[in-house]
Recover the amino acids of this structure.
């Protein structure tokens, strides 16, 4: 019998663990133990922006996995579900600890070749697909260009346009400032470590941020992922969590068909 799975949920830029509020209880109802975190410098985490980088993200996530597992003697493997820019972080985490990671899920995520940043992919496609600029032209920057914010109206139109206005604005105003050192990320990974882990890519066909040509290009550049397609905007886990569960369930069940929930403690910003 395969062991049950733990699920680590990683938010994208400007967001926080709150983007998983609708998906998390649905996963738990299926028997999966879940852990949604605020990355350093995001959500409720108060890490100074100048300290934020990929190494700090990885240290934080590895510590969360260690604490959540040891708190309940839970040695089950982990599936990492990453949204948007967190795809780079998920890949790097899998490279760092492939023995603990059973699967990777990218939701409209940045699933990039080793050594490639998302900005490079945008440069490759921007002549043919001008819309790849996404949220970039709308960002508000500090003087040093090290911290950016998304205006709520822009967030509603680019991230949450498939939701009603009230729900979209409620999500938009929860976005926080994003350190650029935690956004312009590049993961170095190998076929022997991160590359051997099963992957699922959930594409969002109406995405105005990581637009569909970018998503399809990444699927071609890093082949081998199972693909599910949702008619949704950039954040389907917020706008249509039931559809995300339907896309996730066959992949998760294939990794661990025999389930039993383990309560996870010391997860995210909880004490």
């Amino acid at each position: 019998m395969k062991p049950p799975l733990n699920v680590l949920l990683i938010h994208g830029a400007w967001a926080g663990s709150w983007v998983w509020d609708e998906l998390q209880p649905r996963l738990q109802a299926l028997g999966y133990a879940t852990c949604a975190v605020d990355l350093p410098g995001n959500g409720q985490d108060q890490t100074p922006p100048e300290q934020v980088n990929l190494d700090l993200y990885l240290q934080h996530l590895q510590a969360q996995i260690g604490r959540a597992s040891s708190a309940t003697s839970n040695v089950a493997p982990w599936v990492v579900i990453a949204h948007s820019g967190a795809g780079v972080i998920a890949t790097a985490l899998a490279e760092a600890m492939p023995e603990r990671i059973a699967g990777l899920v990218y939701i409209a995520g940045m699933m990039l070749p080793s050594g490639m940043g998302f900005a490079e992919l945008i440069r490759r496609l921007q002549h043919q697909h001008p819309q790849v600029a996404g949220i970039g032209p709308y960002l508000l920057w500090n003087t040093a260009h090290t911290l950016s914010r998304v205006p709520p109206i822009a967030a509603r139109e680019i991230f949450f346009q498939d939701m009603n206005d009230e729900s979209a604005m409620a999500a938009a105003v929860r976005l926080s400032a994003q350190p650029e050192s935690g956004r312009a990320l590049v993961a170095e990974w190998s076929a022997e470590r991160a590359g051997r882990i099963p992957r699922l890519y959930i594409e969002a066909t109406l995405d105005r941020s990581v637009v569909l040509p970018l998503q399809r290009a990444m699927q071609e550049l890093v082949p081998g992922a199972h693909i599910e397609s949702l008619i949704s905007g950039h954040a389907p886990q917020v706008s249509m969590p039931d559809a995300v569960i339907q896309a996730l369930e066959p992949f998760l069940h294939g990794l661990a068909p025999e389930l039993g929930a383990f309560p996870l403690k010391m997860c995210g910003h909880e004490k």
